Amino acid sequence: MAERVDVSVIVVTLDALPWVERCLESVSGYETIVVDHGSRDGTVELVRRRFPRARLVAQENRGLAAGWNRGIREAHGSYLLLLNADAWVVGDAVERLAAFADERPRAAVIGPRLRNPDGTLQRSARRFPTLWRLATEYFFLRKLAPRSQALNAFYEGGFDHDQEREVDWLMGACLLVRRAAIDAVGLLDESFFLFSEETDWCYRFRAAGWQVIFYPEAEVVHVGGASHGGRLFRENLRGHLRFLAKHRGV
Fold first, then answer.
1. Residue 226 to residues 2, 153, 196, 229, 230: CA-CA distances in angstroms?
2. What is the pLDDT of residue 157?
3. Which 3 state secondary structure label does DSSP give 175?
4. pTM of this prediction?
5. Where are the alpha helices (DSSP H) in the chain?
6. What is the pLDDT of residues 17-38, one digit of tens each?
7. What's the CA gap between 2 and 61, in Å, rounded?
8. Which residues touch 197 (CB under 8 Å, ≥6 apart)?
9. Are 209 and 71 in contact (CB under 8 A)?
10. How confident is the model at residue 228 (pLDDT cuts 50, 70, 90)?
11. Is residue 115 helix, strand or coil?
12. Per-residue pLDDT averaged across 67-87, rounded?
């Protein structure tokens, strides 16, 4: 049972079976807002039947950032846990994240260590995109030396995700975000549809003097790619180009 009443969980869904049930079970003690973007696979019916305490909000699919923003507006917590529908928290991870946030008042965003369903590490700490860093990604140069900073800076090459660390940005599968920081910097930029919205948000937080911190003492399992509908490559590239145009210039 949850102890923190100041944490609200936001889950955006679009045809989220079969993972959403496990996702919502893992945070069932918290205020939970489910923003559905037009599911047709039974997700809405499952949420209504199995999680009647969750607040279900339906809206047109204008992208993940728009879904998160709607959830933030609906939530009451001073901490917002943005959780992918294909992810679930392990044990008391939410409590650990919130307690850590209490100790770091300048932290706008705190992210847990992510695990794949088989228990292996899912790398979530990132550096901000540059042309070189994206070249190492899209031309697979990073695979030549996975632990090097020169060829793998985008994925924080050499960092084993085993200690607390301030980072540029964190993958948005699970993020604890401070409402006071949102009030200061603003909501997510809804011109990002599916990828790079969290990159842009972290960039804005850091530019305003807030911190983004990786915290390995809390863990979350993330299936990864389960809800992208085959659009992963195209939308990822589009998000990267949008970030570069916005912050580096066309």
1. 27, 26, 17, 7, 9
2. 56
3. strand
4. 0.84
5. 20-25, 43-50, 64-74, 93-103, 131-138, 149-152, 179-185, 197-207, 232-247
6. 999 999 999 999 999 999 999 9
7. 31
8. 63, 64, 65, 68, 172, 188, 189, 190, 239
9. no
10. very low
11. strand
12. 98
Cis? peptide before 146, omega within 30° of 0: no
User: How far, CA to CA in Å, does 177 sit from each of 81, 101, 119, 216?
Assistant: 6, 9, 25, 16
- Contact between 43 and 35 (Cβ < 8 Å): no
Confidence of residue 230 (pLDDT cuts 50, 70, 90): very low
Token pair recorded at residue 132: 């070189």
What are the pLDDT digits (tens) for 137-153? 554 545 555 555 554 55
State the amino acid at position 171 in one-letter form: M
- In this structure, the number of other CB atoms found within 10 A of the CB of residue 123 comes to 16
Type of residue at 168: D
Of 145, 182, 165, residue with least CA distance to 104: 165
